[in-house]
Amino acid sequence: MASARQKNLRSTFPMIAVGLVVIVVLLRLFNLQVVEAATINSEADGRRGVVSTLWGTRGSIVDANGNELASSVDRFHVTYAPVNMSDFPVINPATDEEETVTVEDSLAAIAEITYQDPQELLTSVEATVAANPESQFGYLARSITLEQYQEIRDLRIPWVYFERLPQRVYPNGAVAGNVTGFMGDDGPLAGIELQYDSCLAGQNGEETFIRSRDGVAIPGSVVTLTEPTQGGTIHTTIDLDTDWRMRQILAEQVEEMEAKYGTLTVVEIATGEIVSAAEYPGVDPNPDAFTEVDPEYRGALTFSAPYEPGSIMKPVTAAMAYDAGVVSPDETIRVPDTWPGSEAEFGDDVSHAPADMNMNGVMAVSSNVGIVMFGQRMDSATRYQYLQDFGFGSQTGVGFIGEEPGLLYPPEQWDSHTNLSIMFGQGVSTTAAQMAGAYQILGNGGTQVPLQLVSGCEAADGTMTEVPDGQTQQVVSAEAAALSLEAMEATATTGSVADQVQVPGYRVGIKTGTAQVVDPETGLYEEDSYITSMAGVAPIDDPKYVVLVTLANPVKITGSAATAPAWQQAMSYVLAANEVAPSPQPWPEITVEN
């Protein structure tokens, strides 16, 4: 039987063992919390959960044939962690031996790839390290290309990192730049980029990972939180080749006439699609380039610069009068060179004895008096309604960002002069887009198809949204539209610029216009300040295209002849490029009395 002493010893040993375990645990805890705390915290600093952006790429803007007008490319910032910067070993594949790559070697290699001065880069890095040796961040290069990124990545420098920086690229420069718009540091600033941002913008995703002290993601720790989504593609109606050629033609004419600016608009009549909205000067929307352009020309003047159209309004007035049944094509009136009434003072540009004119003759000589004598047979309310139906006083179907509706006051606000002058394009203001839309109606048998600049937004899965509804409206009868075109053809064949606007093989119709510029502050006409324009349709026998040219403040020639060469070259190109069949021969004779 065990003694009491043995029993006490058997119970004491376990207690001693437990006590020793407790002491060891306490010592270890003390060591972790106090003795090794700094080391553990330092190690923990290098093992942090990091949230990283997964970039969603912004969609492209393309022309009618799929050519890119705007796209996104990857650029990269090269960064480094000064606190981790050190020499590192590599295996030489030629000798299979370990070699040391120094910090200086690394920086020299990066400088060579990024076209920097190696010594300047080294000096910059040394300054950053001297300022804060524990710094976790610094830049080695900014906005390098994908190819440069790949070269630096292949160096496998453990303390070098990359920031992906998507950038917008406009490969055609100023061609179509006025309609694509451009991007700023915080997002889209103008044009289609801004109007259709909800389609184009990709959505960024996020991933998280645990990084080691040298900044490398620990294998197996990467977790995707949200997947990125890619932006949609905006399909425009612009034809890149046509827009390029129109801008060339326009630039030459603006320079030749010493004009302030010009626009050249091409519309496909059957669809209302804007094939070109060329402008000069224009804007190159590429990063940093658009800031060098005068703010006045960073938008789209085709949509945002209303002006009094002058005599290019006369074919619209003629179509209204024909549709209202107040004039017949074989009717002749006696037209003086000044308005005979006392309610307004205006006359024709060229003095002439009273002459017998039909509507074709009135149009061919661009008689202000003659068009008013025909048009006043409609009351003001009727004319106002027609003008609204033609699209004046409201934005076009394009709805371009910054688009102006122009000015069309209701009849009760017309004074006695405006009541008459509005029929030859004074007292009303329009944009080039509105005016091209009106001529689309005349060429399309009196039916309005809303202008289009964008045909849709294509998502990554191929679905299309933002598709125009294509609703049409009969504004005037087909007969009225055809008679107005006949008057325009009479102008092209017998008018003052007939010898400058002929397109061999095709019947064409045009109308010229010259209007004084209104000072927006005083409401009065500026002295010796004009906008001259020419609008036309071809072929008259089967209308396909509208071409409209405007020049602001031309110096060499202030009349309609200033636009004739550009119009003729533009229409010739458009008909040939689109393989439009020549007009059947022989052409009919147009009755002109003036």
Report on the structure:
The chain is an alpha+beta fold. The protein folds into two domains: 50-82 and 111-236, Penicillin-binding protein 2a (Domain 2) (Alpha-Beta Complex); 240-577, DD-peptidase/beta-lactamase superfamily (Beta-lactamase). 33% of the residues lie in helices and 22% in strands. It has 19 helices and 23 strands. The strands form seven sheets. Strands 2, 3, 6, 7, 12, 18 and 19 form a seven-stranded mixed β-sheet that branches. A five-stranded antiparallel β-sheet has the order 14-13-23-22-21, with helices on both faces. A hairpin with a 5-residue loop joins strand 18 (454-458) and strand 19. Helix 11 (314-324) runs antiparallel to helix 17. 42% of the residues are buried.
Topology:
Layout: H1 4-35, H2 37-45, E1 49-54, E2 61-62, E3 68-80, E4 88-92, E5 97-101, H3 103-114, H4 118-131, E6 138-144, H5 146-153, E7 160-169, H6 177-180, E8 183-184, E9 187-188, H7 191-195, H8 197-200, E10 205-210, E11 223-226, E12 233-236, H9 240-257, E13 261-268, E14 274-280, H10 301-304, H11 314-324, E15 333-335, E16 355-357, H12 359-364, H13 368-375, H14 380-389, H15 416-421, H16 432-443, E17 447-448, E18 454-458, E19 464-465, E20 473-474, H17 478-494, H18 498-501, E21 509-518, E22 525-538, E23 545-552, H19 564-577
Parallel strand pairs: 2-12
Antiparallel strand pairs: 1-10, 2-3, 3-6, 3-7, 4-5, 8-9, 10-11, 12-18, 13-14, 13-23, 15-16, 17-20, 18-19, 21-22, 22-23
